[in-house]
Amino acid sequence: MAAVAPRHAPRAWLIVADDLTGAADTGIAFARRGLATVVTWRDGDTWGDATAGHGIGDVPVIAVDTDSRRLPAAAAAARQSAALAAHRTQGRIVYKKIDSTLRGQPAAETAALLADLRRHDHRTIAFVAPAFPATGRTTEAGRVLVNGQRLEDTPIFARDHSYDTGALPEVLKTAGLESGVVPLDQLRRGAGVVRGIVENAMAEGCDAVVCDAATPEDLLVAAEAVLPLADRMLFVGTGGLASALARRVAPAEPPPPALPPVTGPVLVLVGSVAEASRAAADALAASGRVTPVQVPEAVLRAAPGADTAGRELTAKIGAALGDGHVLVVTEFGPGSDLAAGGAVAARLADLVGPATAHLGGLVATGGDTVCALLGRIGVTGIRLVDEVEPGVPLGVTVGALALPIATKAGGFGTDATLLHCLDRLTTTSPASEKA
To answer: Where is the Four-carbon acid sugar kinase nucleotide binding domain (predicted)?
Structure first.
């Protein structure tokens, strides 16, 4: 299906996400269409300044990580509202990025942003389409599926979930949002039918419309339907809907800008416990192209700066980077207590950060992990450039260092994803592979 940009298509967007990898894998959809895109994030009680060099109004797409996934509903919602207030300008369309498996507080955060937008336009409605078919996430009968399986029946849900169901209308109702559904059979009747359903929902005062989608083509139909209503929309979704919207807004896909050369070793940091990330780390370690270093759980739980084991681990990582590319993996497994994930990510950053002085490139999984390490080494943002594979964006860091970086959400990818990331960073690089 050819992507045709609607007349007067919006070209300025604000993406509000609850973690860093999500902000990046949504923003990259626009970057690949030639729209300059910068990811920034919350730094303590302030916001990162990654857009300062461009002038915030000159960057067509700003993706903001509020670092709110592990917060209670009210605190997460407040963070999202603060990001909207800090970054929204006149004419900038708002896209609320949610986790494709509904982790975090997507309902409360959506409700907060919807209320904020309605203070300026009472007609605003949330268009909720979390499907990301390229990564196995689909929506049918208003319910989230993972590789065809109900979300509630997956290991992802067993490990981490905020709601008792993957049925989106029920999830939204927990935050007081009343919603309807665009079922798959109606979606496939065409964009006009979908637009009519959404306009009727607006007229009836509905808070949200959940849209089914099982293929990228379904999302293109959805995007075609709702883009003409963009000034009355709060778009809510993942990289899937973002990709469809970007294709409609900017149909051409220009060649990506060149990355700076990787002139030093690449660090691959795996902090996620998701099965996909662990399998990819095992495959990378087995390739012989990296030195694997495991970070014991006991070291991660120890008080910062108070343990000999931590200092020895930092020295070990530094020495390994002196010889070539390094894979750092946390010892956490599916049975580990992840309640203190943010604190553990900060501890991991403290252990790894001092060893990165001569780093040439970075590959990292898990939003907490990525954000903590980048903050530790003085990075304030990421200018997105391209995509290694669906859900795995590639960019250049902004701030104290300009490093090529690939980021990956924990649950995305295949066994070969981390190998693909290393290949992409080193293919045209003068840096030599580890013998």
So the answer is: 267-418
